[in-house]
Design brief:
By secondary structure, the chain is an alpha+beta fold. It has a single domain, classed as Coagulation Factor XIII, Chain A, domain 1 (Distorted Sandwich). The protein has helices spanning 5-27, 101-106; strands at residues 40-47, 53-59, 71-72, 75-77, 82-91, 98-99, 111-118, 123-127, 140-145, 149-159, 177-188. It is globular. The termini are far apart.
Length: 189
Amino acid sequence: MKVDRRMLGWGLLMSAALLLTDCRRADEVDPQDENELITTVRLNFTEQGTTTATTFEFRDPDGEGGNPPTRFDQIKLKPNTSYNVTVELLDESKTPVVDLTDEIAEKADEHLMVYTATPATLLTYTYGDKDSRNFPIGLTGTAQTGTAGRGQLKVQLRHQPPVNGTAVKNGMAAPGSDDVNLDFELIVE
């Protein structure tokens, strides 16, 4: 059987092009799975039994890089006290400002707020909200302070979108990447 080399060459070239196209499609990042641009984080602490909230804020209107943050509050709380905690997440690089808190709540299966006090005796956070798979979200919760002291409260928003159509969020901080990663100075006095 005689094979036309030109036809074989075209066939191989087309097969390679199809393979490369298919690989490119599989590796492309879904724009909906990209990290959020969050320029402002507001932590609202309301002492249980009261209605007065104290807000602590990080604000960097132009986002990471560029100009330094315009605000990075110290978190000052009373010792041995319980607080209800809510968080607000904004993108102030846009006009009008975009409140991303509801979007994070809508995509709760892909997001996890993580609160880590150092030393751990300063503050314990308990999640008050859950996603559709019963994993914590962290947009609401409670914080219990310990004895007086100073340290840090790391606040992270972990972006944990599905990988190849399979959910990866498991209630732990490990999978995913940071939308937010801030170290607030924490003062309990």
